[in-house]
Design a protein that fits this description.
By secondary structure, the chain is of the alpha/beta class. The chain is built from 16 helices and 13 strands.
Length: 387
């Protein structure tokens, strides 16, 4: 059977370059179009001729964030909108080189319609919950801080058109699928994200020693935003009065950071900012449990990375990992926006280290069964159904 050629489109990087690497190994990648500057993509070691990098608008985005512009400043909407239109426009050039167009939502409408016009496959991937659900739940959370949050209507209209136009919408979890079904959209297919087991793995010399110390280390990896629920993790951690507890927050502080910074106990909390993956893996190995308290998510890649490093995980129902964690018994699933539940599970983990070690083994067992190469095989099987 002749394998289909894929054209990928993403306005950032996300997981698309891991996917591109596996597609390239199978000689199925025609091109990946990205809204990131090329120098930020070098680490993926893909042949230059397979990458179309368009980083101007994202570079401007980074620049204005460093200047301290508020997260709700209209300039970011303009830059993100321009970036999405640009990667869509650039993707059109490669219509004749691919059989399948896989685009992250927001950046592929016009190219997708062209693919369908030529009887080719258009897959819209939504890596988060349905945009109307996301808008609604985040609006409520920001309102608690007196902020009038709203996803701009032009982004909503464009995504809704993509959902409708695509042959199917690819989603990373049943949680996301349910948010689509509630909106009457049934053309979704679920494909869980794997992790990069070559980058995230147990370092025995470090991992074994953590049980010999009195310190109990809790770790979070992701953007320090209200959406990720970091505010609830901080509240839960502050209930742990024992001096043996440490909280490690890895991720770029967003404008949201100022909303909960004053609640952080910096005597026991370490805020790292952005780190490369090697350093993240090193810290994960030093910690006892990983927490992802997201209010809404698709399926946070950092959860998969934590499991690959051998960590038990505490996740909310809206992280996209509910079924995986329950099935593999490698952690706990809790309701969203509930710091008390996070506190209870952290306390249990601290008081039951033997149980924690068993959950750690289950995390490793699961992660070894999931790779990006297997993800591509599953994606190919789904694509075959539409051929």
């Amino acid at each position: 059977m002749i394998k289909k050629k894929f054209l990928l489109c993403t306005h950032g990087t996300f997981h698309y370059f891991n996917l591109a690497q596996s597609l390239n190994k199978k000689k199925q990648l025609s091109k990946i179009v990205s809204g990131y500057p090329y120098f930020k993509l070098l680490k993926y070691k893909l042949p230059k001729n397979l990458i179309d990098a368009n980083g101007f608008y994202q570079s401007m985005n980074f620049f204005f964030r460093k200047l301290g512009l508020s997260f709700n400043n209209p300039i970011f909407n303009i830059l993100n909108w321009k970036s999405s239109l640009l990667v869509d426009q650039k993707s059109k050039k490669y219509l004749n080189q691919a059989d399948v167009f896989l685009s992250l939502s927001g950046g592929g409408l016009n190219t997708g319609l062209e693919f369908k016009r030529y009887k080719k496959l258009y897959i819209c991937e939504r890596a988060s919950s349905h945009i109307l659900y996301a808008n609604s739940i985040l609006k409520k959370e920001y309102a608690k801080y007196g902020i009038n949050f709203s996803i701009h209507n032009q982004f909503i209209r464009r995504e809704l058109a993509e959902y409708k136009s695509a042959n199917f919408v690819l989603v990373p979890s049943k949680f996301v699928q349910k948010t689509f079904q509630k909106q009457g959209i049934l053309n979704t297919r679920v494909l869980n994200y794997p992790s990069d087991n070559t980058t995230f793995f147990p370092i025995k010399s470090i991992a074994n020693n953590k049980y010999k110390t009195k310190k109990f280390k809790i770790v979070f990896v992701g953007g320090l935003t209200l959406r990720k629920g970091v505010q609830y993790l901080i509240e839960a951690f502050n209930q742990l009065k024992n001096d043996n507890f440490e909280l490690h927050l890895i991720g770029t502080p967003s404008q949201d950071y100022s909303l909960f910074k004053n609640k952080i106990n910096f005597n026991k909390t370490f805020v790292y900012g952005h780190l490369d993956q090697k350093k993240i893996n090193n810290i994960l190995n030093q910690c006892h449990v990983f927490v992802m308290p997201s209010i809404e998510e698709g399926a946070a890649i950092s959860v998969a990375q934590a499991m690959s490093s051998g960590l038990p995980v505490i996740v909310t129902e809206n992280t996209g990992w509910k079924e995986v964690v329950i099935k593999n018994k490698n952690g706990f699933v809790i309701p969203i926006m509930n710091s008390n539940k996070i506190y209870q599970k952290l306390k249990f983990c601290y008081e039951n280290l033997d149980q924690l070690k068993k959950m750690s083994k289950q995390s490793l067992k699961y992660s070894k069964s999931k790779t990006w190469d297997k993800y591509v095989d599953e994606l190919n099987s789904i694509v075959k159904e539409y051929s």
